[in-house]
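In this supplementary section we document a worked example of the pipeline. Step one takes a protein sequence of length 185 as its only input; no multiple sequence alignment statistics are reported here. Step two produces a three-dimensional model, which step three serialises into structure tokens for compact storage. The input and output of this example are shown verbatim.
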Amino acid sequence: MFIQTEETPNPATLKFLPGREVMGAGTAEYRSEEESAGKSPLAERLFDVDGVSGVFFGGDFVTVTKRDDKEWYLMKPAVLGVIMEHFTAGRPVVTEDTNSGHASDGEDSEVVSQIKELLDTRVRPAVAMDGGDIVFESFDEGVVTLFMRGACAGCPSSTATLKMGIENMLRHYIPEVREVRAAAM
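The serialised model returned by step three reads:
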């Protein structure tokens, strides 16, 4: 098994590509060992690596976030070993159901449906290439709130992506949108 690694715009994260499907559908994010307990055997094992502070699973990649006081050249071999051993043994990545990532499973208004469609078709595929995800949280009085996950969470360029990229695109296609904000973590 060969696992490719890619740097992301966020220096605290690395993207690991095991060359196989990671999540059958949806995405999953864990920000602590406690959060992953009983839900993701792979995330639990990754949190055993000293310095791991976050794990995000996409369709064909794993994004790992490190603490600021740790260096990738010291952590990367251990993370690669955990991922390789996990997939070689055929263990499940998650043991719980995942969803599309968007908040509110209820019926959406026409504007919210348009926002989610644009996010799913134009934004999420692009940010997944950088090891992250951006999902809809809410729309209230012209303000779209988005949740940043994986490499996007804490990324120095995430504010520029939100304002220059996503906000401009949503305002262009949906006149009701006035502003885009990141959800508080």
